[in-house]
Amino acid sequence: MCGIVGYVGGKDCADILVDALSKLEYRGYDSAGIAVFEGDRIVTEKTKGRLADLTEKMKKGHKPSGTSGIGHTRWATHGEPSDVNSHPHGNAKISIVHNGIIENYIRLKAFLIDKGYEFESQTDTETVAKLLDYYYNIEKEPIKTITRVLAEIEGSYALGIVFADYPGKIYSVRKDSPLIVGLGEGENFIASDVPAILKYTRDYYLLECDEIATITSDNVTICDIHGSEIKKEVQHATWDIESAEKGGYAHFMLKEIHEQPTAIKTTVSPRIMDGMPFLEECGITLDMLKSYRKIYIVACGTAMHAGLVGKYVIEELARIEVVVDIASEFRYRNPIIGSEDLVVLISQSGETADTKAVLRLAKDMGATTLSIVNVKGSSIARESDFVVYTHAGPEISVASTKAYMVQLSIMYLLAFELAYANGKITEEECKALVSELENIPSKIEETFGIESDCQYAASTLVNAESLLYIGRGLDYALSMEGSLKLKEISYIHSESYAAGELKHGTISLVTEDMPVIAVATQDRLFDKTVSNIKEVKARGAKVVMVTKNTVDVTSDVADVVVKLPVVRDVLMPMITVVPLQLIAYYTSVLKGCDVDKPRNLAKSVTVE
Ligand code: F6R
């Protein structure tokens, strides 16, 4: 996820571009840059770091002066945050900014190298810039050039493009990454999101996939890939600026919950090749995966809960022993690890002190280390032997939601690849699992249809002082995540318990004042969990049951039922976590808590 902007008008634009980008920093903030027409010369300034670093650099050095240009704030996907990987990319003739992922860039890069092009960055975007140059030399005209490039690139993109031969014009196109065209008086804009333009105009066009916009100071034309002009309806933004940054959602947490389908797609699709999991780009080969004696998954908090799901799934499908532990415990318990083991570290921030300490310990003890990290270039990513990046984009809400979801996605891909490498599933079975994983985003969209049920469930919990979450197997792992989410943002004490373990002590806590959230999505364990639910019901507990929409639940089992779309049991966690997140969210809202910034917490925990 990155933010792109563009301006064409009568005013000096460097400050306007930086100001517009500042409204998009929630989309990424590891580097920033602008390219501005100084006459018919494209002048670029860019740097690693935040927008403030770009402003500082321009203050000390050169601030491009001109009335049209493009800008970018980056969330690294291909290539570390660095000056050279920052956008805009291009040459004296063409410059571009890009949000998205070009999935076939390796093949395109090889083609361009063969044609004599040299590359200086590790980005997928530079491939698009060079491909534009290649076709511009043939077509000599922007729209035809762009159309030729669109026919070649695969993946997601929102592009802002300038050609030195056409000063005062911006070209823009998108597919599966957002882009709007802002319509001002004697000035026009492009932007990844509405907040970037609100200070200047409230009118805009929503660009649809593969529509190409040509923008000058007093005109915007939009055509399809065959060059036919398209008439668009003008949209009018009514949001205030603050709520616009949250995309109209009341809180970042809710926005991020709703971003989960996209985050999964962006994380999973580059890791699939011919229908099979493809982690080779991260250096992970099938032979390597076959060779491990044991797998350790170590992390903290929500990331550790993703690891717990990973344990169940890897053990179930690949039949390899997996040990999951909390990093702060693991590092001090003299663990038994060695060169035959794989140690997997999961971390959204890539900076969590305890997880980093385990990484260093595991390396010292000779194990292979693999990190699953969201922040490109973070310490854990840099120091691991192998890294698989999740592509959730920046997570602003302290309570993690979409980062957990993409961690799960990688756990599944790893489990499928391990199972296949170990001969536990056939290629056909592996492809069927991958295909169902690819279908999860649409199932999650379906799950948003039960948001009001979650809101209602929250209303029945809001006055509780303490709650229990219960489940078995994968549902137990999910209960832990549900319980943590509720605790951290609503300040209601809750505990997660293995449903079958309750009667060994904890059930003595259960009264009519202690609601129970029961998670029961696994067919094999369903009847057993229902028996445990009946035990708490018999002690007066009000029960909220989270289960599949194919199940009939009678009132003697549960007081409130949240019913989920069905996928195969092993993949149910990706669906089940959504209502658990929403129940926690709405409980926090009803209690009037600070949802996005709960007390006593920080987003990145860099101390032990
Ligand atoms: C809870 C939450 C935390 C983090 C934990 C690890 O919502 O966000 O429990 O999961 O602090 O952080 P990372 O993933 O950055 O290592």
Give the key terms.
single chain; 608 residues; alpha/beta; Glutamine Phosphoribosylpyrophosphate, subunit 1, domain 1; Rossmann fold; 3 domains; eight-stranded antiparallel β-sheet; six-stranded antiparallel β-sheet; 36% helix; globular; binds fructose -6-phosphate
Provide a brief overview of the structure.
It contains 19 helices and 26 strands. By secondary structure, the chain is of the alpha/beta class. A hairpin with a 4-residue loop joins strand 12 (212-215) and strand 13.
How are strands sequenced across the largest beta sheet?
3-2-4-1-10-9-11-14
As a percent range, the share of helical residues equals: 25-40%
Counting DSSP E segments of at least 2 residues, the number of strands comes to: 26
Overall shape: globular
Radius of gyration: 25 Å
Regarding CATH, which class of the largest domain? Alpha Beta
Major beta-sheet overview: 8 strands, antiparallel
CATH topology of the largest domain: Glutamine Phosphoribosylpyrophosphate, subunit 1, domain 1
What hetero molecules are in the model?
fructose -6-phosphate
Low-confidence stretches: none
What is the end-to-end distance? 30 Å
